Amino acid sequence: LKQVFNKDKTFRPKRKFEPGTQRFELHKRAQASLSSGVDLKAAVQLPSGEDQNDWVAVHVVDFFNRINLIYGTICEFCTERTCPVMSGGPKYEYRWQDDLKYKKPTALPAPQYMNLLMDWIEVQINNEDIFPTSVGKCKEEIL
């Protein structure tokens, strides 16, 4: 169990919202609704008077943090030897392309693919043009 919670090995630190900000309050509301057993459709509906981009941003970050935690608990069982291909079953193979290092779709072992994917998502989440930290100041529509 100690290995599962070793943040240097298994998962990245969560992106946090500043206490006292509107996004922090939205995050608390989202957390409360998800753990209270309420209808999921109702839990993700935009609260009255809230900015849709801020609401989506909070849920995207929460989703990323949850996926990160889940991946962190299983990543040690999927090595380049045991998972040489990133696939979605026998019919689907995922290939990585980022137009930087990988200019063409490239087959990679699953752990390498996942690390690149999680890094890419983290860069998107930390991009102020996509997810500004100031509430209500989105430069581009998220949806």
TrEMBL record:
Keywords: Kinase, Metal-binding, Transferase, Zinc. Pfam families: Mob1_phocein. The keyword Protein biosynthesis does not apply. Zn(2+) binds at residues 78, 83. GO terms for molecular function: kinase activity. InterPro entries: MOB_kinase_act_fam, MOB_kinase_act_sf. This is MOB3B kinase. It comes from Dicaeum eximium. The lineage of its organism: Eukaryota, Metazoa, Chordata, Craniata, Vertebrata. The gene is Mob3b.
